[in-house]
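Case study B.
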Amino acid sequence: MKSIILAGGSGSRLWPLSRDMYPKQLLALDKSESLLQQTFSRLNTIMSASDIITITNVKHYQDIKLQLNKIDSGNIVIAEPQGKNTAPAIACSLEYLRQNSNNDDVVLIAPSDHLIKDIEAFNKSVKEAEILANEGYIVTFGIKPLSPETGFGYIKTDKKLSVGYRVEQFVEKPNYEKANKYSKEEDYYWNSGIFMGKVSVFLDEFKKYVPDIYSNLNLLNFSNSLKIDFGVYEVMPTISVDYAVMEKSDKIALVELQSDWRDLGSWQSLYSVKAKDENGNVTSGKVLTNNVKNSFIYSQKEVVAVSDLEDVVIVETEDAIMACKMDKSQNVKKLYENLKSIQSGTTRLHKTVFRPWGYYTCMNEGDGYLTKTICVLPQQKLSVQSHNYRSEHWVVLEGEALVIKGDKEYHLNPGESIDIPVKEKHSLQNPYDKELKIIEVQQGDYISEEDIIRYQDVYGRV
Amino acid sequence: MKSIILAGGSGSRLWPLSRDMYPKQLLALDKSESLLQQTFSRLNTIMSASDIITITNVKHYQDIKLQLNKIDSGNIVIAEPQGKNTAPAIACSLEYLRQNSNNDDVVLIAPSDHLIKDIEAFNKSVKEAEILANEGYIVTFGIKPLSPETGFGYIKTDKKLSVGYRVEQFVEKPNYEKANKYSKEEDYYWNSGIFMGKVSVFLDEFKKYVPDIYSNLNLLNFSNSLKIDFGVYEVMPTISVDYAVMEKSDKIALVELQSDWRDLGSWQSLYSVKAKDENGNVTSGKVLTNNVKNSFIYSQKEVVAVSDLEDVVIVETEDAIMACKMDKSQNVKKLYENLKSIQSGTTRLHKTVFRPWGYYTCMNEGDGYLTKTICVLPQQKLSVQSHNYRSEHWVVLEGEALVIKGDKEYHLNPGESIDIPVKEKHSLQNPYDKELKIIEVQQGDYISEEDIIRYQDVYGRV
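Model:
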């Protein structure tokens, strides 16, 4: 069996914790592993890392790779040049499998941002679905509705099969009245967004129903690079797999997903899966409450003190604070869109940015300068690089630094500093067993992450 | 006429904007001048700066001086060694006047944290009160109740005088039922906390009703220093002037304060005096709202985005975020007390601290180091100082620095840096017309603002 993980989501609905450059699937929302890592590890219990294809937007490629490499460096990540909803991403991933493995393989297609804890039950449903997939069905995983949810699509089943059911119809997100009706009827299920089928069967359906996508697949060449060519992708329509294939195909079956399942698509849904204190609150970080009930208070860095409020979500990050009513938390997307339209950097990046070698936090920005604290993890090094428009000044705070500057090496201890002039080749390295922390002061007329020329990089970013 | 400004308030009720070290009276809440500066300027319209005595806790002395010097350096500030409520502060200030001016002078005693905009009306009431004060009365300024406020004390008047009334009784903060009754009756007024009387009359009443305070006044010697001796103050009881004198004296009269008047004692009261937008919101700073009503959203530094909330207060400062229900904003004091009990630094200082020469912001703190950005205003200089336990490393970001290090002078431009070893005498100076901004990295086993030895200081802090 193979699988495709869809990891192209944007960062709007859990803003300010999620960002354009750091979407939901990269977040460790309920434990130390991110949703992506949990998804990968779950599939990794029934297949090897090299059988799991993860597809994502090229802008998230580095971070996705970084996270998956921590589990198994044998992972395969395909990069889309732009987001085009699920159908093109799935089609291209299927084409990769067609070129690189057996066309009759069964493939499990799963989003990267669902929370599933009962892996045993999940795997049992996967085994059931596999029977139908081998019979030529495209199998959807349905969830028995727990409530009249209006945020999900519904699937109406038809006659029973050896396992599961034939599918009669897909129903798009209904209004409350309909959702209420569906959730009480036996033959309706929530659409989990998880599918299974043979590579060949999927591709046949793409050929039949979305020739605009299918006809371009033969232009893909994965032998040199897993980054999809912009020109090939550009001409494909932006469309969901539900709309493009699932709602049209007559080969659709359904098995009930017997594990727990949560789409953490809003602060409210995240709140719902967390353990509450005696006042019904979920708190994280430096939070102080007084007469607060049924609320989600999250502090990333600073003190958040709340008094006399109920049913609210308050989230503090280093550069943005969000507060909303719990049952309206889906409107965070509107705040995000508004902030994006006024070009607030808070929609794009976190103040702290993770890199393969560690992380940095922007502290001060002013006329012609930018200061960062940089943490280099033990045994890691930044690329050998130079900048055309800025000088850098480094002061070691903690640990020990090995600095390459031009042809020379310098060893710096806490309190010691060094200047890196414009255009000088340099590298900051930490060949020791302790974290290295430095302050970096960048100065110049043009200060941008783009102003970097890489000469050598252990993480393959040259 | 003389006046005494009571500027000893703590910083709990408008936390996190107010802090223990930066209380309400120092804040510019409605315009560019702080409440203290507004109070001083208001009195300054009818008397000279040297007739206005400001008394405050010694820990606020520097900041009070800094603010008043901006208006008139002829101001007089007396420092209490500790807070002991209003009676000892007033008695000591009266003793200063007894020693330094005419015992028959009339003195106006006013809190430093009230908002009064109509200065003409205020001065008219002051003139009326002066008539009664010269007749030997202690005159309180009463406010015609606008609502059944339970947060103020009430004053019941008796028979009419030439101007104003005799006072029958002081009533402490009533419950709602009583407040409702009082606010509808002709002869009840709110107690504004502003008083007037002859120095000699006040002192006679202290002698009669609070001998514990009065008997120690002759130990005060203001000829060398305006800082009250700890030993003299220590033995005085902690008591309010209302309780100690006003409620007991039979010389009390009342004139109606005809100006506007607000005690900005809570976020709600501050909200009430601000201009609202079409949704009834008061916003300040980088604030974005979506379906928010009748709320006060204040951002000092970062983006604050709020959705689908009503009647809330949300305040963001550099190191603390506070959210509460508007009509429960008096409970912020509880949050403050709780934070204080767990020794949260956010109750004490702001991350940005103002000094006579400019300000600094703490950025990062870690094992053995602390980093600050420091801004030195044009033509200002820090004291010549040394540190026993820490070295400092300075990097110029903007402007130009004159650094005294040992016997030598150094001129540093943006991007240039210098090391100040432990125990080395040094001074950071900005003799230019542009702001100087630097990054300071402090390093050492013991890092504290206490570790400073001052040799020369243009602000008299040696």
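The first helix of chain B runs from residue 35 to 44. The remaining cases will be described in the next quarterly update.
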